[in-house]
Amino acid sequence: MESVPENIAAFTVLSGGFLSVIQDSGRFGCAHLGISSAGAADSASYRLGNLLVGNSSDAPALEMTLVGGSFRVESGCIVALTGSNFAPTLDGRPAPLWQSFELRPGQTLVFGATRNGARCYLCVEGGIVVPPVFGSASTHVLTHLGGFCGRGLRPADVLNIAPHHPSVPSVSRIVRTEILERLFLPGPLRVTDGPQISNFSEDMRSTFFSSDFVVKEDSNRMGLRLDGPAITHADGGELITEGASVGTIQIPPDGYPILLFVEHPTTGGYAKIASVVSADFHRVGQLRPRDVVRFEHVTHETALALLSEREVLLQQQRCIQTARGTP
Predict the structure, then answer these.
(1) Which of 162, 220, 233, 292 could form a disulfide with 126 if both were Cys (CB 3.0 to 4.6 A apart)?
(2) Contact 203, 214 (CB under 8 A)
(3) Which residues make up the CATH 2.40.100.10 domain(s) of the chain?
(4) CA angle (270 as vertex; 269, 273 as ends), nearest 5
């Protein structure tokens, strides 16, 4: 009988930062249990990071929010840092973003506060190993389910990776700048009609689509609360509770929108005025408190075309080139 290779201790956590959790592509098929998908908040950065290190697109990785952690390298490995710039350093020298590079035992990888956006991803060749829960490694923060003991990382935690032997060398890969520019275009979030958009007057719809909203401090992985003009209902009432999906924008009785995020409640009784298109949802994962948000109405046909365009960008092997140097 062939022996199963043991996992490799790759990092010891020196500091967990603000919130550093293990995420994958999400936990699906559990909504009837009241468990939303969770998973990487910025799926595009997460997927590109795994591509850079030669993993499958859904390999577990580390997601850091607002302030990153620090880690001592225990075993040599190939990594990639994607998403927001958390001013990473390797043994005190700047570490690169959006490319793969090698870490050696004894080195220290340190992340600071974000300089842009909300989340940074540390993807490791082989993927971070944690016990799956309902078929997924993703951390559902609010219920303490999955990931590393269902919680954010703490000092002295040890992260293991799986032995990995890619057919294509993953050192010195880099994502082309023009790919990132197309994936993270500034501008409004595109949305389609929500199921209760007719509950709002023409004036309220116009206000919603023409106004600036600000992400509030009490936003989290469950939902982004938005401040701005109050959007009132035509009938002023709540609905019978029904299913709710990620990306939905609900309008509670006070009129201030809530954008349901990756750990959203699976049911809700507020009218849904719009839904963020799948092609833009990774951009929601990079919103932080006090960021300004606008919404642009598009048709379902346009939403499908935008998603197809994004998937082409993520799947193109030519988006990865050989880098000229590593740290």
Answers:
(1) 162
(2) no
(3) 189-314
(4) 140
Strand partners, 108: 72
The answer to whether residues 158 and 124 touch, using CB atoms and an 8 Å cutoff, is no
Please, how many CA atoms are within 13 Å of residue 315, restricted to the half-sphere of its CB?
6
Beta strands in 95-247 (DSSP E): 100-103, 108-110, 119-124, 128-129, 158-161, 173-175, 189-193, 213-215, 223-227, 242-243
Distances (CA, A) of 288 to 41, 169, 215, 273: 12, 35, 7, 22
Buried b / exposed e across 101-120, counting CB within 10 Å, b at 16+? bbbeeebebbbeebeebbbb
What φ, ψ does residue 69 adopt, rounded to 5°?
Answer: -100, -170
Q: Is the distance from CB of 196 to CB of 42 less than 8 angstroms?
A: no
Neighbouring CB atoms inside 10 A of 308's CB total: 10
**Contacts of residue 207, Cβ cutoff 8 Å, sequence gap at least 6:** 229, 231
CB atoms within 10 A of CB 286: 20
| Rounded (5°) CA angle 146-149-152 | 90
Q: Quote the CA–CA distance of 100 and 82 in Å, as a whole number.
A: 10
Q: What is the mean pLDDT of each run of 10 residues along the chain (327 residues)?
A: 64 97 92 86 95 92 98 95 97 96 96 96 96 94 92 96 66 85 93 93 95 96 95 75 87 94 87 95 96 97 95 71 51
**Cβ atoms within 10 Å, residue 73:** 20
pLDDT for the residue numbered 2:
42
Backbone angles phi, psi at 210, to 5 degrees: -115, 5
The pTM of this model reads: 0.92
Architecture of domain 189-314: Beta Barrel (2.40)
